[in-house]
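Bug #77: duplicate submission created two jobs. Keeping one. Sequence:
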Amino acid sequence: MKSTRLITHSLFSLSMAAAIVSCNDGGTTAEPKSDSSTTATAAKMSLTQVPFGTTDGKEVIEYTLTNGNGVSVKILNYGGTITHLMAPDKSGTFGDVVLGYDSLSGYQQAGNPYFGSLIGRYGNRIANGKFTLDGKTYTLALNNNGNTLHGGNKGFDKVVWTGNPLSDSSLQLTYHSVDGEEGYPGNLHTEVVYTLTGNNELKIEYKASTDKATPINLTNHAYFNLSAGADSTVLDHELQLKADKYTAVNAKLIPTGQLPDVKGTPFDFNTAKKIGNDIGKVEGGFDHNWVLTKGAGLEQIGALYHPASGRYMEVFTTEPGVQFYSGNFLDGTLTNTKGGKKYVKHAGLCLETQHFPDSPNQPSFPSTILKPGETYTQTTVYKFSTK
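Kept job's structure:
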């Protein structure tokens, strides 16, 4: 794979043209198709907010977006965290399909595995906590087996963002990361917009600019369980991913630089299959980046299905990769969880749309370096339905 410039995309509102065009590559693809319910429910959208505690002398707010179908999502300005996502099953019964906690203290406890959080500046791992940019070596926090994970000791998941309701269906969160924060260069201004549509889509739009060249790789770390707690694990969920290759990793989950074919391996999800079918054949479980088979624009790249409930989640993204993590490190010991539920191994899964791990140290991977005068954007959509 040839090294390419950071892929950027224009940020569109839901009512604008149903395509996203890559600023660099000129690719055009359709957004998720809407249905007749979109117009009918547009006037029934609502956005409410309630206090959720304080931290660092700042008030934490929980915002709730609800559409006319009854689908709702709750989001904190602390870490941009998705705390609840209510979606109906095939009988119309609503259930919460993301893992999380009942209180702010849960999200702040040591060992919180990034439930529902925005991740930055750099999602995933950077080998040995170091990278060299423009002839200078930068040193980051070693918070994961001698490497840097998800932005460092205090990444974007642990800060209070500024919340700004844009409409009854959209919430904007902004955060200014100062030059040198967690070791990264440049003052980085980040905006994230969460939108809940009348078509049961949760759309997440990311935008950032910098005054110095810096790596950036933003994503969301929601843990999904479409059974809404009825099943203790996601091993019976059926996953499909449009990817012919994945990034091979070493024992510390750092990419080796090789991109093996998935065909004939447990990593082949081009045809939907139960997660439990092959997970035992992968040491430690799934925690890898899939190299998506797609163009530069917004495309459907996968889907998740829970047969018993009928809940079906499609995933669309502009990103070149997705980290499928099968909740391997959950062990039932987390406290303050919703309703005191035990989150055992594989209790939830993540589909983190992203650029590849350790890209600043991997010249053959698509570039994640954002330069002054450029705008980083990425868009990801999780669409909920039943079948």
